[in-house]
Amino acid sequence: MSLTLYLHPLAAFCHKVLIALYENHVDFRSETVDLMDPGSAASHLARWPVGKIPVLHDAARNRVVPETSIIIEYVQQHYPGPLPMLPKEQDARLDARLWERFFDLYVSEPMQKIVTDRLRPEGGNDPIGVSQARKTLDTAYAVIDGQLAGKEWAIGGDFTIADSAAAPCLFFSSIVHPFAADHGNLSAYFDRLLARPAVKRTLEEARPFFSMFPYREAMPERFASGAAFV
Fold first, then answer.
1. Long-range contacts: 39-46, Cβ < 8 Å, 24+?
2. Helix 90-103 and helix 161-176: axis angle, to 10°?
3. Which long-range contacts (CB under 8 A, 24 or more apart) does 66-75 make?
4. Which of 43, 53, 77, 104 has its CA 20 to 30 A from that of 135?
5. Which pLDDT score is estimated for 230?
6. Does a structural domain hold residue 27?
7. Domain for residue 65, yes or no?
8. Structure confidence by residue, pLDDT tens digits, 131-167
């Protein structure tokens, strides 16, 4: 097997890549990186000195590929499947890239700010930063709700890299900062994402690790029990 994806099963950015791989039935193996373990951390830093996950290794091409967007594009180029994550038509491709970045920058990043603040030592919390992150999510939710009017997926009728980015970040952000009641388009889109087989598979694989999530007590029972992923 040529492809190895180094990841952590609870990481939203790793889920983004997993969804794209599962959508395209890509043959790969996964290996969990434990940055708290000195041996695992050292091996990963040798692989990619920045230390972030996920990272893809392609043994056939002797290539290390970091960063989620680049991994997904690399796989589409060299190991294409039935569902291009990046559309062939140029304007549609730009739209997919735009909304992928939107979900990464304005949903994933503020969500992670809120989550990681809970892990800070006593006295080291950043309430101003968390408040700003929540405001960013409010703005992002409203923008997404408007973008989805009349659309099945983020940019229209086709599932793309934008949707593989959206599913995991909306999953975690909906727990730490729920959608507003008047964001019906967003809520319906989130339900469609949860019904997608590749998303179900990714979240079901993550479920044994949900106890590690800092907002575990706020997680809806349908997520904790796995009922939403059946």
1. 44/6
2. 20
3. 68/13, 68/16, 68/17, 68/104, 68/165, 69/97, 69/100, 69/161, 71/5, 71/17, 72/16, 72/17, 72/20, 72/161, 72/164, 75/3, 75/20, 75/21, 75/24, 75/26
4. 53
5. 84
6. no
7. no
8. 999 999 999 999 999 999 999 999 999 999 999 999 9
Q: Which two tokens stand for residue 27?
A: 């043959």
Where residue 176 sits, what CATH number does that domain have?
A: 1.20.1050.10
Read off the amino acid at residue 8: H
Q: State the total domains in the chain.
A: 1
pTM score > 0.90 for this model?
A: yes
Q: How many CB atoms lie within 10 A of CB 69?
A: 17
- Is 170 among the domain residues? yes
Query: And the tokens for 134?
Result: 């929540």
Q: CB of 24 within 8 A of CB of 80?
A: yes
Determine the Cα–Cα distance for residues 175 and 127; give it in Å rounded to an integer: 18
